[in-house]
Amino acid sequence: MAAGFNFGDRLQLTVRHMGEVVFDQRLLFHKSFGFAEKDQPIIYNNELMRVGLAVNQGSFVEQYDLGYGLEWQVEVTH
Fold first, then answer.
1. Are 60 and 66 contacting, i.e. CB atoms less than 8 angstroms apart?
2. For every one of its 78 residues, what pLDDT tens digit does the chain have, with 9 covering 90 and above?
3. Right CATH number for 10-77 from 1.10.150.130, 2.40.50.150, 2.40.30.90, 3.30.70.20?
4. Element spanning 10, H or E
5. Distance CA 70, CA 56 (A)
6. Which residues lie closer than 8 Å to 17 by C-beta, 6 or more apart?
7. Cβ atoms within 10 A of the Cβ of 70, count?
8. Residue 70 and residue 29: Cα distance in Å, rounded?
9. Per-domain residue ranges of the chain
10. Would you tell me how many other CB atoms lie within 10 Å of the CB of residue 76?
11. Is residue 41 within 8 Å of 53, Cβ to Cβ?
C-alpha cells in the first residue's frame, strides 16, 4: 500500500490530547473491525477508504475516554 503497511500488520497508534499521550498501543490494521477479537481495538479502512479506529462490538472513544477537535493529535507508525 502507498502508506507502507498492509492489512494484517500491527501499527503503533499514539493519541495525544494537548500534547499529552493518552493512548499508545500497537494495534492490528485490517479491512474491517470484524477482524479484531471482541472488545479489542483495531485500525481499519472504513467504507470511504479512510482510516478508522474501532473496538469490535464497542466504542473506541468511550473505552479509551478520547475526544476530537484541534487539541487532539493521532499518529500512526509502522
1. yes
2. 567 889 999 999 999 999 999 999 999 999 988 899 999 999 998 888 888 999 999 999 999 999 999 999 999 999
3. 2.40.30.90
4. strand 10-17
5. 26
6. 66, 67, 71, 72
7. 6
8. 25
9. 10-77
10. 16
11. yes
Contacts of 16 (CB under 8 A, 6+ apart): 22, 72, 73, 75
The cell for 6 is: 498492509
pTM for this predicted structure? 0.88
Cα distance between residue 44 and residue 54, in whole Å: 8
Beta carbons within 10 angstroms of residue 56's beta carbon: 17
Asked whether the beta carbons of 35 and 28 are under 8 A apart, the reply is yes
Cα angle 41, 74, 2 (rounded to 5 degrees) comes to 85
CB contact at 8 A, 56 and 38: yes
